[in-house]
Amino acid sequence: MTQVHFIVNPIAGKGSVLDEKALSGYFDATAYEITVKTSNYAGHATKLAKESVESGVDVLVACGGDGTINEVASCLVHTPVLLGIVPMGSGNGLAESLKIPRRLKAAMETIKKGRVSRIDVAMVNGRPFFSNMGIGFDVKVISNYNAGGQRRFWAYVKAVVRSIRDFSSKERIKVEFNQKTFKTNPFMFFVSNSKVMGYDISLTRMASLQDGLLDVVIIENLTKGEILILGLFMLLRLNQYLKKIQYFKVKELKFSFEGQDENRFMQADGELHHLEDRQVSVSVEEGALNVLVP
């Protein structure tokens, strides 16, 4: 009998109810044993996932957005446990990159009949991330988005507009990768393992989850007008034509802050994390996670 555990973020569900009664219609009771767990606070999904792994689960399903997926999948790196995904978040960047359907019935079919894909796992200072991480403007956007309290696309647009008004890039960083060392004062420093950030918005549509490489995007400091042009070009999928955007592919990189500010944050898979160290190391572990995909 296949043990399948679902870890559900109820906030991400937009009113959807996923419990054992709701799921029973999708799984043959003679072949699957279903357990549903609810994540109630930040970090809870990780605790629940660890308990499931220790109990010998076969498939662990993250039901939520990229943040929930990160908490669950982080416990499955370099294990034989399969990750299933039911996209219930606002952006769903990793699910989009893996072409996992949003429709519940189709997502359940993927969990039952999907193929296993081994994908790369990125690490930042020892912390796994699966879609992307960054410092700069995207941190400000996520901070404003969280403060807004709504999980809709237009709330994201409002957060972007507010961030354009408020953001200023003040601190230089020293960057090392591909045997190069240079300094920059970036509007955005973005490292991606996947194609899509969420809402089908992307800076790295050529990225692959299976190439053993990370896609790095460095955008030099921009005027407010240039930020608006960048947003328009991203929506039109023309951002590769902007001169102030630099693209690189790397296996690992390091960067360090030159200033004295200790109140620094990064985002990883859409969640904010305080940076306690001035130096940041990013690397990739090839094929370290087994995911069920269509």
| Rg, Å, rounded | 19 Å
| Rounded average pLDDT | 89
The class by helix and strand makeup works out as alpha+beta
The portion of residues assigned to helices is 25-40%
Indicate the low-confidence ranges by residue numbers. none
Report the top-level CATH class of the largest domain: Mainly Beta
Number of domains: 2
CATH topology call of the largest domain:
Tumour Suppressor Smad4
Task: Summarize the biggest pleated sheet.
Answer: 6 strands, antiparallel
Could you describe the 3D structure shown?
The protein folds into 2 domains: 2-113, Rossmann fold (3-Layer(aba) Sandwich), CATH 3.40.50; 128-285, Sandwich (Tumour Suppressor Smad4), CATH 2.60.200.40. It contains 8 helices and 16 strands. The radius of gyration is 19 Å and the shape is globular. The strands form 3 sheets. A 6-stranded antiparallel β-sheet has the order 6-5-16-13-8-9. A 6-stranded antiparallel β-sheet has the order 12-11-10-7-14-15, with helices on one face. Strands 2-1-3-4 form a 4-stranded parallel β-sheet, sandwiched between helices. The chain has helices at 20-23, 44-54, 66-73, 93-97, 104-113, 137-148, 153-166, 224-235, and strands at residues 2-8, 32-38, 59-64, 82-87, 115-124, 127-129, 132-136, 173-177, 180-184, 186-192, 214-220, 245-250, 252-257, 265-268, 271-274, 279-293. With 294 residues, it is an alpha+beta fold.
